[in-house]
User: Fold these one by one.
Assistant:
Number 1:
Amino acid sequence: MLDFSFEDEDYEFRDLVREFAQKEVKPLGIELDRSYDRDRFMAVWRKAAGMGILGVMVPEVYGGVGGSLMSLLLLVEELAAADAGFTGSLALNWAVQTMLIMVGNSEQMERYLPMISSADGVPAAGCITEAQGGSDVESVTRCGPGALRTTYRKTDEGYIINGNKCFITNGGNAGLYIVIATSDPDAGASASACFVVPGDLPGVSTGRIEDKMGFRSSQTAEVSFDDVLIPHENLLGEEGMGMEYVEFAMIFTRWAVGLLAIGIARAAFEEALAYAKERVQTGRPIIEHQGIGFKLADMATMIEAGRALAYKAAWTSLQFDLEPEERFRLSCMAKYHCTDMAMKICTEAVSIFGGYGYMKDYPVEKLMRDVKVTQIFEGPNEIQRQDVVERL
Ligand SMILES: Cc1cc2nc3c(=O)[nH]c(=O)nc-3n(C[C@H](O)[C@H](O)[C@H](O)COP(=O)(O)OP(=O)(O)OC[C@H]3O[C@@H](n4cnc5c(N)ncnc54)[C@H](O)[C@@H]3O)c2cc1C
């Protein structure tokens, strides 16, 4: 039975995070939206890590705080409502932790989880996308010949990785990368494998840093692997299973992107509601004009409905007695429904602000720019729909 029972400590943690998010993360997001500054980013990152935000779901024995799923749900929304980019950077740590917990062995967990979960944890990154392979390298079925060109070769000393990954969140800032590569680019998913790659290994380098429309407090970069030698023990799970593991992780990461989008949508709705109560046109606050009032009613309703779907997908993702396909399908539904809904809400918020909504002096234009990418990454929404159709 679906169970969303929040404990008092979940709400207490939510309140602490809300205060931190509004006081530290929101101003950081506004500042880095104008110009990225790594030192400023890391200063707030360290505070988040110190509060246990990095390792919210990671067991204490591995450096985390061992919180509940419920506290993660509340936390993602609060942080995203303050700044989506910073939350996106944190989300990569949660994603890499998920891979290590679900696929890694006990030695890998002991060695690497504290590094990206503890009070002095560093950013982590997941390297899937390549210049020629975006949507193609996000599913076992689509990953055909040529989609994946980053290669690995097994030698007596270890595995040697060569290739370039693009659009990598935390690229250049990460202390730890999970990389998917292939032993035969012509073989598709069946030759793929995932590796844990420390960021300071010789041959790991940062290329182009992207200049983005939004999400600007999160660094996105090209990351290259040039004859990077990693020990045999850094293989995650088994060779040949890389794409399966990526898809498996997406059972958890796709609904999380949906929830992140709900945080952005909630911020846009709250801004628009406050503005509509204050802004007077033709003799009354614009909320009293039915055209605007109904928009706000729809926005509030869409947020409630989206949140309920994201929560159901989150709860379902942890029901290990259900088929993975069923859990994955619901996560894809939550991702595309919530992100499309959030895009609509942010666009409506700009409309409610009228001409002021288009100006950088007001908060909603940033929200509209930030939210767009949630429809694109973690698999564009066309791919999410395709993933649902294939599982109906
Ligand atoms: C800010 C940002 C951060 C990112 N962070 C990461 C990261 O941390 N790690 C990582 O690995 N990647 C990351 N990405 C990459 C992201 O996941 C890809 O951009 C995304 O998967 C789409 O790939 P693509 O850009 O190559 O587009 P393409 O795959 O070329 O798609 C182009 C268009 O064609 C559509 N399309 C493609 N194939 C199909 C199909 N079979 N059916 C229907 N429509 C289709 C797509 O939906 C899209 O509209 C990030 C991207 C951005 C913008």
Number 2:
Amino acid sequence: MVNIDALRSGDRKVLAKLLTLVESTRLEDRQETEQILENLTGQTGNSLRIGITGIPGAGKSTMIEALGHQVIGAGSKLAVLAVDPSSMISGGAILGDKTRMQTLALDPFAYIRPSPAGKSLGGVARRTRESILVLEAAGYDVIFVETVGVGQAESMVSQMADLSILMLLPGGGDDLQGIKRGVMELADIVVINKADGDLQKRAALSEIDIRHALEFMRPRHRGWKPCVLKTSALQGEGVNELWKVILEFRKQTEQTGAFRQNRERQLCDWIRMEAREMILDQFDKDQRLSTADSVSKDAETSSSHITAARKLVNRFFELSS
Ligand SMILES: Nc1nc2c(ncn2[C@@H]2O[C@H](COP(=O)(O)OP(=O)(O)OP(=O)(O)O)[C@@H](O)[C@H]2O)c(=O)[nH]1
Ligand SMILES: [Mg+2]
């Protein structure tokens, strides 16, 4: 059993062990994880959860590292969860991140956790959410969830973050780098990174384009209008400003109540998702429903596969009531 007191007092070994447990899909580990999460209730929820998404190489990790030093300098503890949903396909390109955030990885007030490949987006989402809770119980007050943008990933992150940062590269032109409108709509702050050297001019053009595009978008949180910022994570330019905007977001949305509302909505969605998983799990496990005999009997006695499926559902609910 994991020692929760040690977790709270900042024992990194215990933290790593617990995160490994959360990531495990073995049944016994799952049961232990659920027990531990029960015991953590009341000690979670106290962090600022920041999602940061963008194409590979946009500079997400470099930015987190630059912001990280500010966060730690201001007396906070920072954690980074590097989630790579594309690892389901590619085998995990993001794992190099730990080495990229080198100085942060050495800081005793920072904790960086690259996420191993997951089988499904749902599994990755659950694990990331639960890891956030564990990190909060361990006293981390700012948690970054870094993920490569692959369409669904942005929406997954926005379902667990208090605010979402979308990181773009200077593009120019009006195509917005093929960024789909839906992805922009999920951002509270858009950052145009690598606004340095030869790219400065293009970054300025991109900023105009994006500011214009954002004007026509519906804000996600009451009291917050999505904004755009130019940065150079590498040279540390615009990093202070970005942190200020992040704090301003928190202040504004706390004042309007949108911050709390967002958390409540996320919790409700999460509960529904878990419930759905539980139902599916029970359905799949129930031998009485999975025997070919019973299903083929339904098929024989039904006018169509839809009627047969409905019979199966009814039997499931009868058996589980
Ligand atoms: N010129 C310039 N290069 C940058 C800047 N930020 C990051 N880079 C470089 O871009 C490359 C990718 O940076 P990362 O921070 O690893 O990018 P990432 O978005 O985390 O990449 P993935 O995790 O692979 O998706 C590195 O070589 C960085 O040094 C910047 O502001 N300006
Ligand atoms: Mg990265």
